[in-house]
């Protein structure tokens, strides 16, 4: 089949790599003039790494990242973990997004990626889907995959009225900076007062990512750096996290990413006759569970398996859609539980329950990544 993928971000590129691996012709449409990454680092859990293994690039992806052993902290620096969970429930690979996207684009082939390609709409026909561009050009394909994020143009046409919604006045600040004398093992997540969370971790050799977020952030004054520092100070009792404060203070203003968090509401369906939504276009999540990218990559693996095994496209899209919608009903419940944890200990307990569930119920569980 010829498959057009709208969106050249992480999930779109992973989907293209996975489908090309099983013989499909792929064309990736990216409206930006270059392949770039929205964000600093991405956490990849075991279920995502299996998808990269199946695409034939698992070793290369691992080579880009830093293994993270997750710990949670209170604002005084006391470490916390929930009892009753194994080490694997706390381990993920943190990878710089730009390097990962560059790797994927090279694997797919730059000639299969169309840059500055703005999707204007599509027409589903009996035997094809016609993708229309903003400049009037059209492209004929067998399947269109919408991997174009929370503001998805594909979703807007497939499901009018499904616009992304602000999440609880939730903002996040982050940046990747040169490593200095901070703890090499990082602090991952500190849970502070006023619904503020944050920390830092090594993302690659010589590079550290810091991140701060707050639900119900209220008025935002000053520069991005000022706003991030104001929240980070709530995570720094009695000298704990002084290095986080220094890191933020030394980060150039234009290197700081500040995002208002948007959510995609639960959707009644993810597919049409020859259209499928994937990743954030289908289920844009809050980053506080640190698994949106992993679960989007998991989507790509499920869609690949469905297209490989189903007798026809109609059955393949059903086999993809049904289990993913059911899975994300549970993901949203876990996400709400973690968000509304009343303190650091309860946060640690609820997050471990989520990561354990995600890993032990993921497609291919029991088959080790690598």
Can you describe this structure?
- This protein is α/β, with parallel strands linked by helices and 370 residues long.
- It has 2 domains: 211 residues, 3-Layer(bba) Sandwich (FAD/NAD(P)-binding domain), CATH 3.50.50.60; 98 residues, D-Amino Acid Oxidase, Chain A, domain 2, CATH 3.30.9.
- Helix content is 35%, strand content 26%.
- The strands form 4 sheets. It has a 7-stranded mixed β-sheet.
- A hairpin with a 2-residue loop joins strand 15 and strand 16.
- Helix 9 packs antiparallel against helix 10 and helix 10 runs antiparallel to helix 11.
- The longest helix is centred in the last third of the chain and has 27 residues.
- It is globular, with a radius of gyration of 20 Å.
- The mean pLDDT is 94.
Features:
11 helices, alpha/beta, 18 strands, FAD/NAD(P)-binding domain, five-stranded parallel sheet, seven-stranded mixed sheet, 2 domains, D-Amino Acid Oxidase, Chain A, domain 2, 370 residues
């Amino acid at each position: 089949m010829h498959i057009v993928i709208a969106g050249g971000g992480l999930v779109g590129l992973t989907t293209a790599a996975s489908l090309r691996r099983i013989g499909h012709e792929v064309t990736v449409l990216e409206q930006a003039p270059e392949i770039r990454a929205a964000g600093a680092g991405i956490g990849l859990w075991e279920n995502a790494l299996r998808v990269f293994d199946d695409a034939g690039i698992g070793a290369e992806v691992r080579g880009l990242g830093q293994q993270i052993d997750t710990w949670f902290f209170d604002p005084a620096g006391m470490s916390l973990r929930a009892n009753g969970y194994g080490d694997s429930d706390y381990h993920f690979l943190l990878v710089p997004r730009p390097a990962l996207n560059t790797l994927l684009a090279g694997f797919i082939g730059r000639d299969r990626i169309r840059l500055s390609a703005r999707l204007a709409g599509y027409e589903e026909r009996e035997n094809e889907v016609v993708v229309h561009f903003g400049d009037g050009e059209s492209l004929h394909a067998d399947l269109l995959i919408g991997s174009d994020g929370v503001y998805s143009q594909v979703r807007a046409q497939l499901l009018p009225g499904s616009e992304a919604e602000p999440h609880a006045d939730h903002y996040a600040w982050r940046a990747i900076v040169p490593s200095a004398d901070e703890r090499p093992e990082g602090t991952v997540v500190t849970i502070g007062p006023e619904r503020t969370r944050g920390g830092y971790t090594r993302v690659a050799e010589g590079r550290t990512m810091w991140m701060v977020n707050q639900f119900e952030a209220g008025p935002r004054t000053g520069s991005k750096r000022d706003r991030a520092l104001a929240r980070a100070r709530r995570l720094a009792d009695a000298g704990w996290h002084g290095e986080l404060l220094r890191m933020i203070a030394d980060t150039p203003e234009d290197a700081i990413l500040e995002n208002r968090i948007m959510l995609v509401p639960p959707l009644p369906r993810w597919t049409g006759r020859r259209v499928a939504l994937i990743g954030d276009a289908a289920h844009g999540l809050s980053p506080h569970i640190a698994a949106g990218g992993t679960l989007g990559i998991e989507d790509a693996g499920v869609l690949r398996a469905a297209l490989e095994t189903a007798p026809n496209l109609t059955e393949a899209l059903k086999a993809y859609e049904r289990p993913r919608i059911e899975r994300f009903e549970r993901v949203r419940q876990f996400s709400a539980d973690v968000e509304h944890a009343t303190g650091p200990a309860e946060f640690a307990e609820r997050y471990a329950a989520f990561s354990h569930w995600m890993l032990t119920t993921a497609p291919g569980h029991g088959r080790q990544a690598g």
